[in-house]
Amino acid sequence: MENVSSGGIAFFLASENSLAIPSNSGAGWLGLFNETNNGDLSNQIVAVEFDTLQDQWDPSNNHVGIDVNSIVSMANLTWNNTMVSGDILGARVSYNATSKNLHVFLKDPDAPNDFGSLNLTLNVELRDFLPEKVIVGFSASTGRAFPIQAIRLWNFTSTLDPVVGGGNSKKWVVWLIIGIVALVVGTVLIWAVLWRIERNKKLKEEDYEDEEMGMENSIDEDLVKETGPKRFTYKELVVATNNFSEEGKLGQGGFGSVYRGFLADLNMEIAVKKISSSSKQGKKEYISEVKIISHLRHRNLVQLVGWSHERGSFVLVYEYMPNGSLESHLFGKKTPLTWPLRHRIAHGLASGLLYVHEEWEQCVVHRDIKSSNVMLDSNFNAKLGDFGLARLVDHGLSSATTVSAGTMGYMAPECVIMTSKASKESDVFSFGVVALEIACGRKAVEPRAEESKVSLVSWVWDLYGRGRLLEAADETLNGEFDKEEMICLMTVGLWCAHPDHNLRPTIRQAIQVLNFEVPLPSLPSQMPVPMYFAPAATLSSQLEYTWTSGTVESDVESMLDGEGNVVNLSFNFTSFNPNMHDITYLGDASPSGQVIQLTRNRKNEGLDQSSGRATYYKQMQLWDKASGNLTDFTTHFSFIIDSQHSNATADGIAFFLAPYGFPLPDPQEGRGLGLVSRDQILNSTLYPFVAVEFDTYPNLPTDPPYNHVGIDISSMKSNKTMPWSNRILSGERNNASISYNSSTKVLKVVFTDFPGNTTVLKHLYFQVDLRKVLPEWVIFGISAATGNEAFEIHTLLSWYFSSSLQIENVTSPTDLRPPTPNPEQNRTNKRKVVLVLVLGLVLGACVLISGLGWLYWYFSSRKRRTRVEKKDDYVLSEFENETGPKKFSYKELSIATKNFVEEEKLGEGGFGGVYRGFLKELNFDVAVKRVSRGSKQGIKEYASEVKIISRLRHRNLVQLIGWCHEERELLLVYDFMPNGSLDSHLFKENSLLTWVMRYNIARGLASALFYLHEEWEQCVLHRDIKSSNVMLDSNFNAKLGDFGLARLVDHGKGSQTTVLAGTMGYMATECLMTGKASKESDVYSYGVVALEIACGRKPINPLAKEGQIRLVDWVWDLYGMGKLLKAADAKLRGDFDEEQMECLMMVGLWCVHPDCNLRPSIKQAIQVLNFEVPLPSIPLKMPMYSATPLNMSASSLSSSYGVTSSEGGQTQSLSSSYKIATSSAASSSSPASLLHT
């Protein structure tokens, strides 16, 4: 080249159609672009420019740049020597298909070694910008000066050889025809084999159905309806919802629509959630919700009625909530709620949360508690729903999930900022926010409110600190509320929403305060905010992150979700390494160890500034042009700004979104945070952007004279700022969280601040419609710059990002990619002939195959026209096992129990034997209860037990696995209890329960009874609580079983049964005299078992001394003499906690009080056992029972009930005489002592 600077030269790859030079492409356009096509994706050009003239988009006169469809380089470096000296320069351009790195090396051949050489690298996927076939070459241009630009030497190699046309095409056609013929013949053979197999299978099924024709079906029909969520056919739900009509549409969810329906068979209204078959996220949440909520049963949880997976549709069926959601009443147009209703709703929600956290078999972390997920039934009772994000955690363990999930405003700080770990504490935080919403009638976040009122929690806490808490009460209540209850609810809300999760209450403690059982908590007058650190390493996947260890790179695909289609993009980098291909580095940015250095100290190079940028390698779809929908996104990152000067700082770091091709300014301009050049600082007209800056230097007169956090819209002049007290001189870690809500259009920034010696969180909000600022597709990343006054080293430690966008008209994941050039359309006449020939053969084969398929369908599918696709069988089989008790075949249970051999027999009950078995399909042991064929009473109790216990779910109840009614056999399948029953340990010398085990058993049994009496949909009266019906699992946890005598009673009503039932010694006095069972009679039975646990004695011992025959009488007598501890089980040898022993026996005596009106509720008994309230005061002498006896003679008893003694094996009559009747229960722990209805 000559010593005149004008234009430059470029090596390029372009579409083979790009042979014409664009008009007006001289001077700085290098013969490649012009003002019209610059930045157009249809250019299909990637070029390496050696530019000698500085244009408005160039960093300097002499530089090397990499251009993609635009003259504005995606990456560039300044060549310190001149390119117009006439010297010969050597350049090497290479591309690595594995790492996707395009590398440029430039060197003066006369310089020694690599002195003064230039290296430039850009990570780019060429397939996104170039067609399959390209041309390669050089292009050059000049301007007013005319330098000579010449190529002296050119060497080119590639590893992928082009396909050569010509004669080989004939062979290709021949092989294609042979392949199609082979395909057709093979298909015919396969159809024939499948038809034969299906025909044989069908004959066997018809034979099996003929055998079933004579079976009794009435019980089966009842049990299928009663044993929990059922599988519906798609046709049933189409009829129920009037073909999913728009008139019956209740709403649109994240991955489906909800419709109102009516099931004529069950005579009930339902809400049907329909998920699209193409929704991957919807399927996962569908499976999660069915597996979890189908096991949960509580009066304050939305009930799952059933599910359907058929014809590619996923459908969930819930009970219908006529009063909609809590949110619609608090903030919508529905009827405002009175204060009593609000207070009751808060209680109900807390009760539901207590159940899922502590009282089910596992702890359920809901992860999305908010007012829109709290439904209201016809009586305005709260029902917590939407368990799609819920996770199961073993009791006593922390959460195993580290993915950020939930709704902004309800998510706990530790989940929002960095840890992302959901827990019981984070659920409690969400409950606290909802409690404040109920009391205040305000949303969790009000972006349009004044600064101090944006966050509901912060606003209420501020009023609390100033002693003006009641000013936060909902104005729409017009003062019509109980002030004490209002203060209590808001204080509990603040306590639950405490920023430090260690200082939040458990939901049980919150309930105690709401019930005024304990005083109000004392909270700090000013809201404290602790610091949260970045999460440990996680493995990134399409849907969630699970715990792992070590440094793991993200490889996340965008994906479709929901009926409206949702695009999700997410990754989580807890550290970085040089081999990662997910990050594109520009300027001075580069990986260093396990971090990213965005800037570096270049003073040894004679430079005073540095800038760098790290961007994610894929573009993000920010909004959908078809629907106008905006994305929701959240990003967390940790960084360090370390000043290299003792008392000065310079510039800062920023997170940004910008259009594709957003250029990096000259690294020598150490200002503008590495986002814009000197002349674009106030207004970036060429490239708009949105950034959140962490600024450490006042670049502009408009900048605050202190460190600050600001939100920038296409300008370094921030639209909104907030002071930032950082510690960058000491290089301390900073954490930031940035989120965007597409509904409110609010950009929210949460960041760590260090005022004085404390660490707090600050919040910055700004409302902006990103559609009006940025294009549909954007790049995003972290940028930094330094220089001028001092050097700063900017280090990125970790980076998490997640976005979700609902879009329309997307049919496949390929549609999610950014706009890419159309492939070349040129075809020769010869190829057209081949294409027509191939299409003809394919169409002919399709017709033949379709005909064969129709014949196959005609012969094999006349009676069954619809089937679940084989690829979805795994979902069906999982649901059959996961959605509650299943119906087993007799053959399955016969195999499991080895044909009910005596060696597997565990015991004999009142209406059949119990056998141990093993189900290979489920891979666990079971206990199978087999009802005697001739037992009419057994059939009734069988049906009762299946209907009731199949719908109960609690960690202290025996789980019903399934049932069978086949070949005139009635069988119940339970979870196997390896440690047998409680009585087998209490009354046998060779098996001793420690005191710790006994006390836990007593509390577990009480918890189960509280669930039955208070927390399930109806009140369940067990009517046969005794130590032989308390089973012990492998960890000696109590499990109450045998619900054959149980009855259902509506809450708030007394007993509806007047039939004598139960076991002598455990039956309350009023039951023996009146025949009426109640919650109080169950409490009596519990009290007897509590005394058995403490004393190690049976309720009746006919061989004992006169005053010690009845356990209750004996213990009460010792209590009256002040010698209560003498009743303690001698086998314990004094190895027990005396305070707990006294407590358990006192509770036992309180529960067996002869006057049912003076007994405690089971809830009150639990409070005493937990030492939450003092011991009860009971009379020293046991009161006598006085009531009108039941009109029942000894002869009627003996004719109605047969009691088999386990000692003599003889049948004996029972007398109405109390003394004789009680003595017959000497062996009350045996099933033979049951009195059956």
Automatic annotation (TrEMBL):
<dbReference type="InterPro" id="IPR008271">
    <property type="entry name" value="Ser/Thr_kinase_AS"/>
</dbReference>
<dbReference type="InterPro" id="IPR011009">
    <property type="entry name" value="Kinase-like_dom_sf"/>
</dbReference>
<dbReference type="InterPro" id="IPR001220">
    <property type="entry name" value="Legume_lectin_dom"/>
</dbReference>
<feature type="binding site">
    <location>
        <position position="274"/>
    </location>
    <ligand>
        <name>ATP</name>
    </ligand>
</feature>
<feature type="domain" description="Protein kinase">
    <location>
        <begin position="900"/>
        <end position="1178"/>
    </location>
</feature>
<dbReference type="GO" id="GO:0004674">
    <property type="term" value="F:protein serine/threonine kinase activity"/>
</dbReference>
<comment type="similarity">
    <text>In the C-terminal section; belongs to the protein kinase superfamily. Ser/Thr protein kinase family.</text>
</comment>
<dbReference type="InterPro" id="IPR050528">
    <property type="entry name" value="L-type_Lectin-RKs"/>
</dbReference>
<comment type="subunit">
    <text>Interacts with ABCG40.</text>
</comment>
<keyword id="KW-0808">Transferase</keyword>
<feature type="binding site">
    <location>
        <position position="929"/>
    </location>
    <ligand>
        <name>ATP</name>
    </ligand>
</feature>
<keyword id="KW-0418">Kinase</keyword>
<dbReference type="InterPro" id="IPR000719">
    <property type="entry name" value="Prot_kinase_dom"/>
</dbReference>
<keyword id="KW-1003">Cell membrane</keyword>
<dbReference type="Pfam" id="PF00069">
    <property type="entry name" value="Pkinase"/>
</dbReference>
<comment type="similarity">
    <text>In the N-terminal section; belongs to the leguminous lectin family.</text>
</comment>
<keyword id="KW-0325">Glycoprotein</keyword>
<protein>
    <recommendedName>
        <fullName>non-specific serine/threonine protein kinase</fullName>
        <ecNumber>2.7.11.1</ecNumber>
    </recommendedName>
</protein>
<keyword id="KW-0732">Signal</keyword>
<dbReference type="InterPro" id="IPR017441">
    <property type="entry name" value="Protein_kinase_ATP_BS"/>
</dbReference>
<dbReference type="GO" id="GO:0009626">
    <property type="term" value="P:plant-type hypersensitive response"/>
</dbReference>
<dbReference type="InterPro" id="IPR013320">
    <property type="entry name" value="ConA-like_dom_sf"/>
</dbReference>
<dbReference type="GO" id="GO:0005886">
    <property type="term" value="C:plasma membrane"/>
</dbReference>
<feature type="transmembrane region" description="Helical">
    <location>
        <begin position="172"/>
        <end position="194"/>
    </location>
</feature>
<dbReference type="GO" id="GO:0005524">
    <property type="term" value="F:ATP binding"/>
</dbReference>
<dbReference type="InterPro" id="IPR019825">
    <property type="entry name" value="Lectin_legB_Mn/Ca_BS"/>
</dbReference>
<keyword id="KW-0547">Nucleotide-binding</keyword>
<dbReference type="GO" id="GO:0030246">
    <property type="term" value="F:carbohydrate binding"/>
</dbReference>
<keyword id="KW-1133">Transmembrane helix</keyword>
<keyword id="KW-0723">Serine/threonine-protein kinase</keyword>
<keyword id="KW-0067">ATP-binding</keyword>
<feature type="transmembrane region" description="Helical">
    <location>
        <begin position="833"/>
        <end position="859"/>
    </location>
</feature>
<keyword id="KW-0675">Receptor</keyword>
<keyword id="KW-0611">Plant defense</keyword>
<comment type="function">
    <text>Promotes hydrogen peroxide H(2)O(2) production and cell death.</text>
</comment>
<keyword id="KW-0812">Transmembrane</keyword>
<keyword id="KW-0472">Membrane</keyword>
<dbReference type="Pfam" id="PF00139">
    <property type="entry name" value="Lectin_legB"/>
</dbReference>
<dbReference type="GO" id="GO:0002229">
    <property type="term" value="P:defense response to oomycetes"/>
</dbReference>
<dbReference type="InterPro" id="IPR000985">
    <property type="entry name" value="Lectin_LegA_CS"/>
</dbReference>
<comment type="function">
    <text>Involved in resistance response to the pathogenic oomycetes Phytophthora infestans and Phytophthora capsici.</text>
</comment>
<feature type="domain" description="Protein kinase">
    <location>
        <begin position="244"/>
        <end position="523"/>
    </location>
</feature>
